[in-house]
Every structure is written in C-alpha cells, then in structure tokens.
Specification:
This protein has 546 residues and is α/β, with parallel strands linked by helices. It folds into three domains: 242 residues, 3-Layer(aba) Sandwich (Rossmann fold), CATH 3.40.50.12780; 71 residues, Luciferase, domain 3 (Roll), CATH 2.30.38; 97 residues, ANL, C-terminal domain (GMP Synthetase, Chain A, domain 3). The mean pLDDT is 93.
Length: 546
C-alpha cells in the first residue's frame, strides 16, 4: 500500500535550513584559532554552508566523496559539517591526537580526496603530505590575512574559496539512508575502524539526544561543546543545537580552565559537555580563584566514568547538574544518560548521587541487555554482570570497508546485537553500570590506549624478554598505563631507558607513566598472560605522575 503521508527524507541539510528559518538570529560564537571572537547567526551560517557546497562542486567534489577535517570546534568546522554532508559528500573528522601512522592509515583507508585543516595543524599536514597520495585539495581554514608560507603546493584559503561562490545553492534531495559522515575508532587493537553514519541515523540521534530524559535541549539553551568535533561528531551536539535552535558557543583550541570559564560567563552558557579530564582542569581553576558559575545549569560528562567526587563537587559546590552519559563511536554515540525518575526525587541526596554514578538509562532508540558466556540474557537486578549488547536505528551494523568480518551477534530469537566490549550490570529501573572491559584497553582522558600495542613495542627492545601493560588509577587522567616487564638475563636496562625507547614509536600520550621490573609474569596453564593477577597485585600502585 502507498503511504498517506509525505515521503520527505531525513537529511542533515534540513537541520541548518530549519535553524535558519525559525532561529535565524540566534548566535553562533567562536573563539577562533587566530585568537579573536567571531560572532554570527544561524542564517549566516546557512548562507556560508551553501557557499561551501558550491565551492566543493567547483573543485570537483561529487556525491560520496570523503572530505577530511583536522580541526577544532569552530564556525568554519560547523559549516563543513553542513556544507559537505548536505551536498551529498561525506564529512570525515580526523582525530589529530592520534599517532602519525594512524592518521595516515585512516585517511588512506577512507580514500579522502580533500583535507580541510586549522592553522594549528599546518606543521602536521606538511609532514603527512608525502603519505597522502589520494588527497587532491588541501584547504587551510583561515582568511587571506593569516595565510602562511607553506610547503603544500596549491594550498587553498578557506575564506577565499567560499567567497568566490554564491550562497544561491539548493540542497539536493536523496535517500535518507545515504552515507553522511565518517568517524574512526581509536584503534585499541590493530588499526582504527571506520564508522559510517547516515543522514537518517544522524537526524534520529539528534531527536533522541534533545529529549527531556536525555540532554533536555531547547531554544532557551546556550550550548558549549568542549568535546571535540573530531570525537564522535562532538556527541551530536552541532546537529542537536540546530534542531532545537539553541545558541552555540565553540571554544576553538582554548580548552584550559581559564579560557573555558571566560566563555561560560561571557556567553551565558547553560549546558556544556566533555570528558572528566577537562572538568578537572576547570574545577581546579574555579577553586584556585574562588569562582562560581552564574548561568551554567548542567554538564554532560562522558568518555570515561565520572569520578563520584566530581559529581558531588559540581552539584553541591556549584549547583550544576551532572548528566553522566555513556556511548560509543559505533552508537553515533549516545546510548545512556543517568537521569533520575520521579520516584527518585524523594530519596536522600546521597542516594540520588549514587544513582548518578551509574552510566544511566538508555535513551529512546537504544535497547540493551547483558548476557553470559552462552549468550543467555541475565537479570536486571543490579548484581548480575555480563557482556553488554546494544541495538537500535543509529547503531553500527558493520565497520566501513571491513570486508566480510562479522560485527553483530545474533541472539536466540534471531535478532542481531552489537557487542560493546564492556561488562556491565543493569538494575530493575534500567540503570546500566559498567564494571569492567572485555578487552585490556586503557582509557585516559576519554581516549583509548591499546595495551597490546604498548606490549609489542616493549618486547621489541633487545633487553626485554616479556612485558605486560595494565591500567593504573590516575587522579587526573582516570587511567594511565603501567608497564610490567621481565629483563633478559644480564641486561642492565633502567626504567628511563625503556620509557625513552617508546619515543617516536607510539603517540607521546600513550607512553607508560612508569615501569616495574619483575622476575616473571603470571600465566595460565595454556600460556596466556594473567592480567587479572597483575591488576590485583598493583591495585594500589601509585604512579609518579599522580
């Protein structure tokens, strides 16, 4: 039967069109990489996004092309979000914090043919240039006055590129399941994996994120996403802000406590979002200078578990509600938010905070369950823990260009679920809490570090016989890597020698904070390393950086 409803596709361009038409004078404020404050509104952002779309056509970009960015949270990056995806190309945000070899792998795997980048990353791009043979156009995201002398041939200037074209552009219509944007995981084991979002999934995720029991966004909000636009699309906030007509404040490269607080106060920010590491720096700045927020009402904290002391400090010392959230790049990324139900409002403050320490309830569109080793669903009693599985309309089906590798797990009813790699409990009210990880990865400041890659690097040293890397608690970064190693006989290796050995082989922030030499490592009967024993032995180990 034919539908009696209009078949209007859910497209990313509809978000900026809506924001222009119904919230056109709402501000978008950026602290630019060049150092000034840039102000304009949704109508102007829409006009410039269309100019960019025209410019992309002019330089030969066609539907389905991957357009990469190495950029901070700025108005130009926002225009790329809409101009690229809205025109039918794919916006590929690249994480500049990744190791050089990972960036090269990601961009070549994605087959990016254009790269837009901020001034900050010019030295990086110049070094990457010989290893990016598929990139035809390099665009520096600045104006003519700030264009530097560069080794990059035919380097384009963003402002000159879009000003040479008009905003007289009609957003094309195409199927809503068309690919729209591409993010890669951090590559905890092996190479990073690509997650390709669609227009439909992005719109549905934006709707769900804005709901009252999710992030509760509205046209009365002023949103400052500290989470980078290269990290799972800034958790979808650039899209959800346009959907609700909220004022958007973009901090550029200024992520320190003083810079953020200045923007919070000057722009009357009501909601922000970021990983715990960022908030530690901000709270430290507040305490040192005896400052208080005047407008901030709630903050979304995710990327890693929120320390209970941080939640209590925000809520009790600064009257800011903490929205403890959890998700994954593979989930677009939002999965749960720890929002209390009506029956919880009469509980004591301590009991309410204990609820908020959990990762929270699934938002509409996300279903989840925990299973045992045989795939049998476990009870929601807050005690049983098992592998966490999720499914929903904006959750990954398969990784981008990953061949025939099976990603999903079928259950006994034939439904397919995505395995998150986390071990969790779920209580009778649906609040999920992660208790462990099924893979030995280390989460530091919201980013993943592969213990396997560090171990492989360590044993490549001629004086190391065997090595293991485990996560150790760190008050600022949540977790940091500790290397536990066995020297070869008669080796005179020092811990400084092995730490220096990592330089240039892995990203600087991956390098272990400390090294402990032991005579042997624990193994199972089949020869597998028993990391659980190492975690028990070093559970209270204090890192020198802590």
């Amino acid at each position: 039967m034919n539908s009696h409803m209009m078949e209007v596709p859910l497209l990313i361009s509809s978000l900026i069109k809506y924001a222009d038409r119904y919230h056109g004078d709402t501000e978008i404020v950026t602290r630019t990489v060049e150092g000034d404050i840039h102000r304009y509104n949704y109508s102007e952002a829409h006009e410039r996004s269309k100019k960019l779309a025209n410019a992309l056509v002019k330089i030969g970009v066609v539907r389905g092309d991957r357009i990469a960015t190495l950029a901070w949270n700025t108005h130009r990056h926002l225009e790329i979000y809409y101009g690229v995806s809205g025109s039918g190309a794919i916006c590929h945000t690249v994480n500049p914090r990744l190791f050089r070899e990972q960036i090269i792998y990601i961009m070549n795997h994605a087959k990016d043919n254009c790269l837009f980048f901020d001034l900050t990353f010019l030295p990086i791009v110049e070094k990457l240039l010989p290893d990016l043979p598929l990139v035809e156009h390099f665009v520096l995201m600045t104006d003519k006055a700030h264009m530097p002398v560069s080794q990059i041939p035919n380097l384009l200037c963003y402002e000159q590129l879009i000003e040479s074209d008009s905003g007289n552009f009609v957003w094309p219509e195409f199927p809503e399941k068309t690919d729209s944007s591409l993010c890669y995981t951090s590559g905890t084991t092996g190479n990073p994996k690509g997650v390709m979002y669609q227009h439909r999934t992005t719109i549905l995720h934006s709707y769900a994120a804005a709901m009252p029991d999710a992030l509760n966004l509205s046209a009365r909000d002023v949103i400052l996403p500290v989470v980078p636009m290269f990290h799972a699309n800034a958790w979808g906030l650039p899209y959800a802000a346009a959907l609700t007509g909220a004022k958007l404040v973009l901090p550029g490269a200024g992520m320190d406590g003083a810079s953020l607080f200045e923007l919070f106060e000057n722009e009357k920010v009501t909601l922000s979002a970021g990983v715990p590491t960022i908030w530690m720096g901000l709270v430290s700045h507040l305490k040192d200078n005896k400052l208080k927020f005047s407008t901030l009402k709630r903050t979304v904290i995710g990327g890693s578990a929120v320390p209970p002391a941080m939640t209590r400090s925000f809520e009790e010392d600064y009257q800011v509600e903490v929205l403890h959230a959890w998700g994954m790049t593979e989930m677009s990324p939002l999965g749960t938010v720890s929002i209390m139900k009506h029956k919880h409002l009469s509980l004591s403050k301590d009991k309410q905070l204990a609820i908020k320490d959990k990762q929270g309830r699934p938002i509409y569109g996300v279903d989840m369950k925990i299973v045992d080793d045989q795939g049998r669903e476990l009870p929601w009693d807050g005690k049983a823990f098992g592998e966490l599985l999720v499914r929903g309309p904006w959750i990954l089906n398969s990784y981008y260009r990953d061949g025939d590798e099976k990603t999903l797990k079928p259950d006994h009813n034939g439904l397919e679920w995505f395995p998150t790699g986390d071990v969790a409990t779920i209580d009778p009210d649906g609040f999920m809490q992660i208790t462990d990880r099924s893979k030995d990865v280390i989460k530091t400041g919201g980013e993943w570090i592969s213990s396997i890659d560090l171990e492989n690097t360590a044993v490549s040293h001629p004086d190391i016989a065997e090595a293991a890397v485990i996560a150790v608690y760190h008050p600022k970064w949540d977790e940091r890597p500790l290397l536990i190693a066995v020297k070869k006989q008669e080796a005179t290796l020092s811990k400084e020698d092995i730490i220096n050995f990592f330089a240039g082989k892995v990203a600087k922030w991956w390098i272990p904070d400390d090294v402990v030499f032991v005579s042997e490592l624990p193994h199972t009967a089949t020869g597998k390393l028993q990391k659980n024993k190492l975690r028990e032995e070093f559970a209270n180990y204090k890192l020198p950086t802590a």
